[in-house]
Design a protein that fits this description.
This protein has 378 residues and is α/β, with parallel strands linked by helices. It folds into 3 domains: 206 residues, no CATH class; 56 residues; 61 residues, no CATH class. The protein is built from 10 helices and 12 strands. The chain has a 6-stranded mixed beta sheet with strand order 1-2-3-6-8-7, with helices on one face. It has a two-stranded antiparallel sheet with strand order 4-5. Helix 4 links the parallel strand 2 and strand 3. Helix 6 packs antiparallel against helix 10. InterPro entries: PGAP5/Cdc1/Ted1. This is Calcineurin-like phosphoesterase domain-containing protein. Keywords: Membrane, Transmembrane, Transmembrane helix.
């Protein structure tokens, strides 16, 4: 089942009456691309009436160039009013109907209420700009079409009001823009459900149409989050160690430390600070007797004599150990040391950061621009 797409005429599409008289090719181009400007269609058991609101306040029948467009719109409205009203009607207009200045627009409006402002060209005839349809045209529309609901735009923000007419109170929803680039930080759209069943006796016509206002995320919060991620990325690139992070090495050190604490303190070796003395008994048997070491270890290491009855280190062994220690010290001393100036390190970090930023921008910037231009085109 195909989707029904309806195009509403906006002032950015065909302008106002003054532009229509000066450049009639604008309307011809629009009708060639999107079809007629005034039409009606039925969804379920609800009839939708779409009108070209920019031409309603043109001085039709007065000999001015814009009278043709205004006459076409009003003739369409009169023809609709003469049709049998089998289903409830919903009026679709880009410019909202007239409302008094400083009218309360409900709790969902985020900006100040815009009052009526209508500008005319020379001699006070052609409309150059208007915020709302005039009071007379609005009253005439309500009496002829008798809608149960009015949907409008143009204001870029939410506004829900009620109009009084001979057929009763009629609610109008001015739907805010769906793009934050139109000056509204809280973009939104409205879901509409049209009844597919005929209304029973005693039912209100308003029950045939249900609406639900849906808000999109606040765009400034999204860009604040982007900015925070950019700052964190920049700091990470600047402060990241030049040799990287050896995570496996740190994990091994942590596990070793945990094992040491889990096993408790290392037991003290009692043989570290003692010596053994050889003693012979009357039968000639030798015994090793452990006794506390009374001479410091430094003296033992420096002494080259071997006493009888003491288990001491041999001079030859000490000679080899001393040679090994001297070789180790020499090897440590001969390791070349690298000294880098702080300025050179800072320059290298900045260059590395710039390279990484170029890579990140090369990946993300084209994606962002495609999404941005797609939003503009839509």
């Amino acid at each position: 089942m195909g989707a029904l797409i309806c195009q509403m005429k906006r002032n950015h599409d065909i302008g106002y009456a003054s532009l229509n008289s000066q450049r009639p090719e604008v309307i011809r181009r629009y009708e060639k691309a999107f079809g007629i400007r005034n039409y009606q269609f039925t969804i379920g058991k609800v009839n939708f009436i779409a009108i070209d609101a920019q031409t309603l306040d043109g001085k039709h029948g007065s000999g001015y160039p814009q009278e043709n467009q205004a006459s076409q719109t009003w003739n369409f409205v009169k023809n609709v009013s003469m049709d049998d009203q089998l289903y409830p009607r919903v009026l679709l207009t880009h410019i909202p109907l007239y409302r008094p200045d400083s009218t309360y627009c409900g709790p969902y409006r985020g900006s100040q209420v815009i009052n009526q402002r209508i500008l005319h060209a020379a001699h006070g005839q052609e409309v150059v700009y208007q915020n709302y349809i005039t009071k007379e045209s609005s009253k005439h529309l309500l009496e002829l079409i008798k809608p149960v609901l009015i949907l409008s735009g143009h204001d870029h923000d939410q506004c829900t009001i009620a109009h009084e007419s001979t057929s009763g109170s009629i609610k109008e929803h001015t739907v805010g823009t769906v793009s934050w680039q139109q000056g509204n930080l809280y973009p939104s759209f409205m879901l509409l459900s049209a009844s597919n069943f005929a209304l029973s006796n005693g039912s209100s016509p308003e029950e045939a149409v249900l609406t639900h206002l849906c808000f999109l995320p606040m765009q400034t919060h999204i860009y604040m989050w982007y900015l925070s991620l950019f700052v964190l990325t920049l700091l990470a690139l600047l402060l990241w160690p030049a040799s990287g992070l050896n995570i496996w090495h740190h994990c091994c050190d942590l596990m070793t430390s945990c094992n040491i604490f889990r096993g408790g303190r290392k037991e003290k070796n009692e043989d570290d600070n003692c010596e053994y003395e050889m003693m012979w008994d009357a039968e000639g048997s030798m015994h090793l007797v452990k006794k506390a070491l009374s001479v410091p270890m430094t003296n033992l290491s420096e002494s080259g004599s071997v006493e009888r009855g003491n288990a001491v280190m041999r001079p030859t062994a000490k000679k080899h150990i001393n040679q090994d220690i001297s070789m180790d010290v020499e090897s440590v001393l001969t390791i070349p040391t690298r000294s880098k100036s702080k300025t050179k390190i800072a320059i290298q970090r900045v260059l590395r950061t710039l390279r990484m930023l170029v890579v990140i921008a090369a990946v993300n910037l084209p994606i962002y621009m495609m999404l941005l231009f797609k939003d503009w085109i839509d």
